[in-house]
Amino acid sequence: MSEVGRPELMTRYDDISYAVTGGIATITIERPDVYNAFTRDTILELNEAARTAEADDNVYAVVLTGSGAGFCSGADTTDMPNWDTQSPEEYGAFLWLIQQFVWKLRTMATPSVAAVNGPAIGAGCDFALACDLRVVGEGGVMREGFVNVGLVPGDGGAWLLPRLVGESKAREYLLTGRDITPGDAVDIGLAVELADDALEAAGELAAEIRDKPATAVQHTNRLIDPQRSFDEYCREAAAFQWECVVDPEHTEAVAAFNDNREPEYDRPTED
């Protein structure tokens, strides 16, 4: 099945768009004039879109990207209030909204792929890191640049990056604010590939995942957790495996293997 087709669902918010095509939900930040820097309203819309994708049984993978030449350049500083006049609680409430979107990407069972088509800076970098997989384009520079502006990675970067590339390499990028170039992202295992068209390649990767048995994919995604002990893993894996064993798609996968044919699953069709 191709990753390209006519959307079965297209929702245009003020700052983002949400489209479902062939069982793949694509969330696009639509603020290209500022390299998709976000406002509070943008974050509210991103949270809603992520919840919508997770709740939809006909969505088998999620692609996150930005319009134009950027992925997400972080917070739109021209839209931020004067924090000197705000309370810690007011600032914390704003940061919590950003953290909730990162948390949703990190924890939802539906696999997510970041199509890093352009700069992913600050919280925008954290959005990419929170996805399960990343594909980068030639302009897909990622930067945890918080120290460059006298801040800490409040959105999750200092938790996510060490788990993806190791503590030493993560400290290099976090403490210096250096760019993670597209080539470096691939070399250190942060990105799956460097592609001429990051969105197209991410769609192909999402389609490959979509075409696997859905229960097995989601449960496998849940099991990938470096914080879980091996005992916890084994207990949860046993429960998940039983759900897979009695799942009709497992039966079809085994039958197809024995018949030397491609399995046939119930997936949305594409035009």
TrEMBL record:
Family: Belongs to the enoyl-CoA hydratase/isomerase family.
Lineage: Archaea, Methanobacteriati, Methanobacteriota, Stenosarchaea group, Halobacteria
Recorded GO MF terms: catalytic activity
Organism: Halorubrum yunnanense
InterPro entries referenced in this protein's UniProt entry, alphabetically: ClpP/crotonase-like_dom_sf, Enoyl-CoA_hyd/isom_CS, Enoyl-CoA_hydra/iso
UniProt cross-references to SUPFAM superfamilies, sorted A to Z: ClpP/crotonase
Domain of life: Archaea
Name of the featured protein: Enoyl-CoA hydratase/isomerase family protein
A UniProt-annotated Pfam family: ECH_1
PANTHER family cross-referenced by the UniProt entry: ENOYL-COA HYDRATASE, MITOCHONDRIAL (PTHR11941:SF54), ENOYL-COA HYDRATASE-RELATED (PTHR11941)
